[in-house]
Structures are given as structure tokens and as C-alpha cells.
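REQUEST FORM: STRUCTURE PREDICTION
Request ID: SP-0412
Submitted by: Lab K.M.
Chain count: 1
Length (residues): 80
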Amino acid sequence: MPKLEIELTDEQEERLRREAERQGVSIDQAARALLRRGLGEPKPNLDELWERALRLVGTMEDLEGATDLAQNHDRYLYGE
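STATUS: Completed
RESULT:
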């Protein structure tokens, strides 16, 4: 994934941080979601996302001990 460096105003940075906290995601994830919506990009194909997710089931150990998968599965699947 290409990296891009941008400059934000203090207010923009604070709003982006608050949005990331509200969604429970990283600042990078929140910025990508906002850009996708702002650019009018379609959401990822749900069938493709399910296929990708199913291929991962049982392949990794959760070192952080996530216990909120049932409540926040959309966040984990869609990254938003």
C-alpha cells in the first residue's frame, strides 16, 4: 500500500482522532474510510470480504486476547 504524508490543521487532526476513537479503529483506518466515502469509492465487495475472512478463521493466535468479536465483528471484517 503506498504511503502518503499530508499536513492537517490542529482541528482536523483532533477531529480525525475523535472519529478514530468513536469507531474504535486506528487513525489510519479512520482516514482511509473517510477518504473512501469522500471520493465516492464503493465499499469493498462483501462476498470478497467474507471469503477473505473465512480463509483466516483459525489461522492466527490472538495475542491481545480480543473478547469483543461478537459485538464488533463489522469493525474487524470491514475495518471501519
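NOTES: Residues 10-78 form one domain.
Reviewed by: T.R.
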